[in-house]
Amino acid sequence: MIPYGRQSIAEDDVRAVAEVLRGDWLTTGPAVTAFEAGLARWTGGVPCLAVTSGTAALHVAYAAAGVGRGDEVVTSPLTFVATAATAALREARVVFADVCDDTGNLDPDAAGAAVTGRTRAVTAVDYAGHPADYDELRALADRAGALLVGDAAHSLGASYKGRPVGSLADVTTFSFFATKTVTTAEGGALALPHGERFARAARFRNHGLVRDPAEQRDPGHGGWHQEVHDFGLNYRLPDVLCALGLSQLGRLPAFLARRAELVARYDALLAGVPGLRLPERRPYVEPAWHLYPVRIGGGRRREVYDRMRAAGIGVQVNYIPAYWHPVFEDLGYRRGMCPRAEAYYAEELSLPLFPGLTDAQQDRVVECLLAILV
């Protein structure tokens, strides 16, 4: 089976992990700060905070933003459910706004229509690695007095109008799951330019612990004393995984270049195929291309999915609209709310895309798809 995505592990990655295993720090050590510093070089210098997953990064982001009961979070339904679920876990009301037909990203006009006086955050999703319309979303978030959150799980290394992802929002989250461009097996991170928001995120990541005597309510008990002023969780990413991530960052330019090369080959090989719509790119962005999402017309997506899987081609569908999940249905959300997102989902199929995909394997993917469609 040719998977739709997979990790790219080299001997340098293995050596980096082994070095940590032979050292003194398995967690909360120097590899964590080194990985965070390495990430900041890709966010235009915006400080970064490593956490245990992309989902954890979103949860920490909403906590740092002060999202809570009575607040609203406006976001896209065309995303993995965690983008919305973590806001709901903060007891906020998730307000889904429709997407742009070409990119699948949050539509600024739809988001603007969804904003109310209770909107605490507007969360963009860089679908497939294509950055969202950050300037327009920034303007509407500022008008609403809300924070702009960027779910950049797909887009580490991408840029928008010459500015790197990670520098475009008040809080940006990343994912390092195995299929992402850079992996720590499981893991995530946040980029936070605001100092106090960064401090809140750092505390939430570490149980909410306050260790600085100058910030404690009852200091003076001894060097062991620590306090919890607001509840947090253990979302610390260990040194072992940070060492893997730091090693992977050294190959990020090569990963991005190979993904772009494969996308260009797909574009050329599949151009003009009847019933097939290829992914689109705005002229002012440099995508990271986590996915290659084609759209299958004529109601044939399920047929194509089943036949390609049977042929050993691991295509995938990304994503079920978040409010279609029963947990949101039970909260009163109904299908039909975001028709463009639902139409996108009804046709979407992600073809295999990862740096280790060979030209010969890609040719096989294309031949199989053409044999079904043409």
Automatic annotation (TrEMBL):
PANTHER family tied to this protein: DTDP-4-AMINO-4,6-DIDEOXYGALACTOSE TRANSAMINASE (PTHR30244:SF34), TRANSAMINASE (PTHR30244)
Family: Belongs to the DegT/DnrJ/EryC1 family.
GO molecular function: pyridoxal phosphate binding; transaminase activity
Active-site residues per Swiss-Prot or TrEMBL entry: K180 (proton acceptor)
Organism: Nonomuraea montanisoli
Record PTM N6-(pyridoxal phosphate)lysine, positions in chain: K180
Named cofactor requirement(s): pyridoxal 5'-phosphate
Alphabetized SUPFAM superfamilies for the sequence: PLP-dependent transferases (SSF53383)
Segment forming the signal sequence: none
Annotated keywords: Aminotransferase, Pyridoxal phosphate, Transferase
Name of this protein: DegT/DnrJ/EryC1/StrS family aminotransferase
Gene3D superfamilies assigned: Aspartate Aminotransferase, domain 1, Type I PLP-dependent aspartate aminotransferase-like (Major domain)
GO biological process: polysaccharide biosynthetic process
Transmembrane intervals: none
